[in-house]
Amino acid sequence: MSEEHERVRPPPLARRLLRRAVGARDADEVEGELREAFQVRAAEEGPDAARWWYRRQVLGFVLRAPWAHRQTREEGSMGWLGDVGGDFRWALRGLRKRPTFTFVAVATLALGIGSNSAIFTLVSAHFLTPLPYGRPGDLVLIWEAERATGDVMTVSPGNYFAWKDEAGSFTDIAAFNVDMATVSGGDGAAEEVAASVVTPDFFQVLGVSPELGAVFTAETARDASGDLVVLSHALWTRRFGADPSIVGKDVRIDGRPHTVVGVAPAGFRQPERRLGWQNTQLWRPLLLEGEHDDFDSRYLRTVARLAPGASLDRARAEMDGLADRLTRAHPEQNGAWTVTVRTLDDYLLGDARPVLLILLGAGATVLLIVCANVANLTLARGQERRREFAVRAALGSGGARLLRQVIVEGLVLGAAGGLVGTLGVYAARGALQSLQARYFSGLVDVAVDARVVGLTVLVALLAGVAFALPLARTAARSDLGNALVEGDARVGSGLATSGTRNLLIVGQIALATTLLVVALLLARSFDALVRVPPGFDPHDRITFDVTAPRARYPDRASLERYFSDLWREVEAVPGVETVGMTSDLPFSTENRWTTFGVEGRPFDEASAPRADFHTVLPEYFAVMGIPVREGRIFTEAWEPVEDVPIVVNERMARMVEAEGSAVGRVILLHRDENTIPLRVVGVVGDVLDDGYAASAEPIFYMPYGANPQRGMSVVVRVRGDASGVVDGIRRAVARVDPDVPAAGLRTMDAMLAETVARPRAASRIGAAFALLALLVAVAGIYGVLSYAVQSRTREIGIRAALGADAGTLVGMVLGHATRLVALGLLLGLGGALAAGAALSGTLFGVRAWDPVSLVVAAALLGGAGTLAAWLPARRAVRVDPKVALSAE
Amino acid sequence: MGRIGLGEFEHQVLLTILRLGGESYSVPIVAELEARTGREAATSAVYIALRRLEKKGMLTSRLETPDESGEPYPRRYFAMTEAALEPLKDVRQAFLSLWDGLEPALDD
């Protein structure tokens, strides 16, 4: 060979591939000989042609994997490409030959893995995805809170400015409020959207930069009298065609032109827990002009960013101290109030986590049932495959090799089920997103992302191994020689022989029973919750909030004028029957309270009783459908009164009554040096102030004139379709004062429903899982018993020929099956008691060992399981004994 | 039965080894095969055929280490055995019998 040609080398990548394909044992030999041929080629045809020839030869080695035949009994250096490739091809071939089994197995696995994958998307969004703000871990919400109870309240402007100036633990504190707004201009008719008013540092505190333009500053906002707006990305895209030159243009909001200063980035959400307001579409400046000294009107929400180096504990301590100073400085307004600081993350997502954990548990249970099911299907076929295993063993596959092949088949099935399941979840991602937004939180998007897919793949592979294991154990056993001799591979494969299959059936029933009981507990708990009478009628009622700002309504006279005008305007709206007002709606959990004394009884501040109090217009009780139990409602509305009449609820009436009646009793409020007498003129029914799960507190109601409030909730009883009236109400409110919008406008039914959204979610999803588990478990029993009975056809035929009647035969088959079902039920009920105990914190109105749930679950599963066994049994005994005997 | 089957390609490989003196290694076998058949032969296919023939007992092989061969890599030499002769003859006989009288029909 010439010097020149010796320098020509084969392509290195192909060379390495060749060595791997051939295996370590033969690599030197094959590589050497091929290189020699390569050099000859290079000399004859040139280096390029030789290299292409070399690559073709290597491809031939890779594809042919001939070495497998050489390695059957030797320990060896098989190129792993051929080995695993061979197992994979064998698995695919085997599955293709049994299409029904493959279809059922993949479909069942897809259901089990897919439903878990769906939960993973929710879990990933809740536990693992950061909120859409800059460094969200540093964000906190600051609320006012009642000193005695810790109940939280929105913030007064006076306190907000004081915190802003003095608190050193935060880089800044922003304030905001939410309402609705009407947008016109751009594409489409005018629409009502969730809107927010924010202080200029709002976006900066959240660590979010606008995608277009900028945000307003204090100066620009003041100059424009507040008529500036930042649009949401969705609104900008939907209504304004993502116009890149939108900044500086005007859009009409609530009928007034507002200049667009910027567009928020895509995916940005308002930090709100209430579902409707997370999708805020526009932000306008919150001008708190002249409100620095307003310590009364508590209507702001605040969000703050912890300063670098400041810990949450330090911030809380500082705020407690600051709250004390503000109490001393403004004792009348701040006396009952302190401050509470909560991380944004905890506030927004914390409540959803227990429910998600329950769902994870349910999903895992369903998956276990599915695996047991497929394992059973696999084993039922296992008897037929003993012959196949025996043949392969004779051809040289050792026990370990067969085990590996069966596991690979399991992995293939698991992967197929996982793929179908994931595709299903991906297709359903829209539904998952709305589930997420309705029941949990719309703040973080649900996505079938790498994390979810990765977790699904892991689960699918684990499932594949899990259900292949029972069969793998069979394959690896050494008595395969018998299988070759036996003519009928199904002989002896009846019900009683397979301990593993029985165990799997019992396990499935047990798990399904537990899950069913849990679902029933959740459903009954939810049902008990919403059956609690709230004490008022929420149907056909609309509610909204208004707050009259101090700047324009500085005194009692102006406030009364505003609210009486408002009452008149709203009452005149077509479709409105009556209008009531209250300072605090039920279920609002933002209540005022006070200690009180009773005339004629000794008073001790330390042990004095407490009651909530509301300021209302007299129509309030009629509008809300709160019944009058005794006496009357006061007639005074606006006028200041000397002898203040009040109405108490039944709970309070029992506390103050003398000689069986509370009417006429005088309640005493002790304020500094003064004692304010309040005369009880009537008693009304109890109302749940704090939600379904709390019990009625003592409450008394005062007329507006005695205790004028700046912020009131308005309740409107409507005739006919509520949605038609909404526009009219909004316009009426704007007519009174265009700068005071109707905030939080919604039906009372919706308001109540929102408070129980999560228990409803838990109940419904739990039911879905339990149903799935029931179906899978029952289908599993049916499939396995069907097969087992079929293989006993011969035995049944013999007995029938010998004179046994149908009943005895069915009983023979059923007896074993029902024993398994009963055992499963017993274990399942035990598990259900344990699960119930674990859940008892979340249950309402139902015991952890609720007998109704236990009995219904047992009856359902027992019945379904027995039916699943009876059907194939009945079919078997219908077969003509002659046919049965000749069947093989 | 007793008769060992011989595939067509195996037949060609055996004949090629016979032409090369009854013993050779893969490089000359592939070259001779290609020269005689006029078609490119995949080296891997030749290797498979050689291994199969060895398993059937028609070939034996010996590995020559680099020290012995003087080359930087080992070489495996395959040699025909007596057991190969009968099957070769049988196949030849079968072909001749089938071809008998047909050549003129296939000549252009």
Task: Describe what you observe in this structure.
The complex is a heterodimer of chains A (888) and B (108). Chain A has 888 residues and is of the alpha+beta class. Helix content of chain A is 53%, strand content 16%. Chain A has 29 helices and 23 strands. In chain A, strand 3 and strand 4 form a beta hairpin. The longest helix of chain A is centred in the middle third of the chain and has 43 residues, at 352-394. Chain B has 108 residues and is of the alpha+beta class. In chain B, 56% of the residues lie in helices and 13% in strands. Chain B is built from 6 helices and 3 strands, in the order H-E-H-H-E-H-E-H-H. Chain B starts with 7 loop residues before the first helix and ends with a helix.
Brief sketch in words of this structure:
The complex is a heterodimer of chains A (888) and B (108). Chain A is 53% helix and 16% strand.
Beta strand % of chain B:
5-15%
Relative helix content of chain B: 55-70%
The main pleated sheet of chain A reads as:
8 strands, mixed
Number of strands of chain B: 3
Helix content of chain A: 40-55%
> Separation of termini of chain B?
41 Å
Q: How large, in whole angstroms, is the Cα Rg of chain B?
A: 16 Å
H-E string of chain B: HEHHEHEHH
Strand percentage of chain A, roughly?
Answer: 15-25%
Mean pLDDT of chain A, rounded to whole units? Answer: 82
**Oligomeric state of the chains?**
heterodimer
